[in-house]
Amino acid sequence: MTDPDISNTIVYLRPRSVEAIRALYDPRNSDLVWTITPHDPMAGPSNSFALHPRVFRLGFNSEQKQASEGFLVGTGSDSDIFIPNHGDIPDPHPGNFRIHYNFESGALLITAVGRLRIGATVLEYEQSLLLMAGTDVECESPALRYMFEFPDLGQYAADHEAKYRAYVGKLGIPNALYMAASRSEEPLLGGVYKSICELGRGGFGTVHKAVNIMTGALYAIKQIPDKLNTKFREYREKERAIIDQLHHPNILHYHHAFVDGTVLYIVMELAVNDLNAHLQSRGKPGQQISVPLRCIQSIAQQALSAIEYLHNRDITHRDLKHENIMVTKWNPATDLPTIKLADFGLVSFEPEPHSLVGTPGWLAPELSKACTQAKRSKKVPKGFKYTNAVDIWAMGKILKGLLGYVPETITNRGKTVPVPKDAALSLSKRMMSIKPKQRPTASLCLQDSWISAAPNPNGLAASKRRRSSSSSASSAQVNKRVKAKLTSRQE
């Protein structure tokens, strides 16, 4: 197979304001265009892309860089494309990035040096993404936007996937994503999502790991079929109704939902794993899993913060368990995870719900007792109601289970000392009180001395953390919007 002809490939720099246009180039031009042309990298700087057998770069800098370094765009003096700062670009390096071209696979790879937004995906420092034809790259500065246009290399790139992967490995970029440039015969979900693998399966459907073929962003997509069952439809509508309403750093972000045929697809933030599975994966084969108490302390604080957010809005989760607490990342600097609550198909928007739902083994005593009575009499006990204290009981059980990962003793300066778990066990016991009214609220749990001293995975102070998590819409506003959505869909 012959090499593809990319001699006419162009890159557009499209500023989004008149001021930026004046600052960057002659305003008589509609776009600033550089053409990729074959160029000898040893010939020095050029006003066009320099095509190299493995990478291309820009030669706008006085210093000739190594070809493997790609190029930088920004206002910094080390940029290959130097953009004068006229006051409308505050960041000295707004959206610096490197581009690598793999001639063997015909792939373009963008690596962030500054903060970049590519479609719905935000790339942080040194994160990478495979560029597709028509990729729209936005810099942190609102003044700059780059549009990349290049040939659809089709089967050429698909035939060289192994070579591409090897090339990315040589670059040492662990966050690079691969996306076949050829058109797949497998139908795309919603026209843009390609399923990569199945992550899990439950009573209401399956969850897939998927990639947006336009941006390269990874998501989890919940697939809920229409089984013409009232419970299934209620579950579908509840999750769909809250997608735009819940915004909290410890609640899994729901991006959007769409219906394809008789199946509802819910596009969600992709998590690493559920909490229990992730903690177990950190253990060494043949050895007992050991998790520091400070880690469990942080997990409990984050979960309680999300529960407080829900309860302040008259929302009861009703299905809290290890499997519905997801780990989205693990911060190596603090050695702490960021966790998020997930699966809102069983939520209640009433202060005193009465329906008997939940997972056996995770039901609060009052719910478990009512379920037993209902099983005998074939109906819900007359006048039965409960409160959001069922969430507190379930969280108390989660905390108790997590404390089992914490060793009883540790070695400190050559001495074996006991791990102080009494405060955590005491809180868990209070949360699991038989009588609902004796359980502390989520807000009171957060005021507990052990919880309030929890380390934050991102290193934020507790007061700042609490302010950021309580700044969203009020209970009345959220409930009004959610109930309105449910009502309109039922009509």
Automatic annotation (TrEMBL):
The keyword Kinase applies. One of its GO terms (cellular component) is nucleus. PROSITE patterns: PROTEIN_KINASE_ATP (PS00107), PROTEIN_KINASE_DOM (PS50011), PROTEIN_KINASE_ST (PS00108). GO terms for biological process: mitotic DNA damage checkpoint signaling. Pfam families: Pkinase. ATP binds at K222. SUPFAM superfamilies: Protein kinase-like (PK-like). Keywords: ATP-binding, Kinase, Nucleotide-binding, Serine/threonine-protein kinase, Transferase. Residues 193-451 form the Protein kinase domain. SMART domains: S_TKc (SM00220). Residues 456-491 are annotated as: Disordered. One of its GO terms (molecular function) is protein serine/threonine kinase activity. It comes from the Eukaryota. Residues 480-491 have a biased composition (Basic residues). InterPro entries: Kinase-like_dom_sf, Prot_kinase_dom, Protein_kinase_ATP_BS, Ser/Thr_kinase_AS. Belongs to the protein kinase superfamily. This is Protein kinase domain-containing protein.
